[in-house]
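sorry for the late reply, my laptop died twice this morning and i had to redo everyting from scratch. anyway the thing you sent over, i finally got around to it. pasting the sequence first so we're on the same page, its 180 residues, then the predicted structure underneath. double check i copied it right bc i was rushing
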Amino acid sequence: MKIITLLSLIFISSKILACPSIQGKWSSCSVSSALLNPFEVVAANIALKTLTFEISNPSATTIRSKIIKDTIFSSPETILDEVNALNRNNKSVWDKNVFEDSTPPELTIFMSCSANGMTEYITWDNLSVANYPDHATGNYPKYFKSLYSRSGNKLIRKIYAKGEKDGNYNYLARITCSKK
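ok and here's the structure:
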């Protein structure tokens, strides 16, 4: 009986780790946030409309994230394409940033999956005034937590942030994307 129980847990765990509910190509994204003024929301939504997010699982213990930026005058541009291990810290160094002529982020990411979606913790490692001059006045948060869930053909990402490691997470934004 113990062996049957153990095998059942292993098979259930492997299905949970595979993040099945959030796999796919996601686009037509929009953001909502009380932290942004109406002009900033419009600008963010215009920028988000150019992006496609692809999420897949090459194995039960890894997740592949790909961000593609569509441009009007040239072919689509891959901003991020990486495979990360689930349930452990991963380094993520972007080749490019979403915004032209800005420093690409360097992040430490920890992701864990559940049957309902995924939880992601991000530490922005290269956040400094030298890399991001606006940080001196904006005091951007360094630590993020995202909760991914799916509702029908919509992917919902709720983002929380904090400035200090020991601080409390505060709600930042909600991004909703449609299945492509």
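The chain has a mean pLDDT of 82.
thats about all i looked at so far, will dig more tmrw
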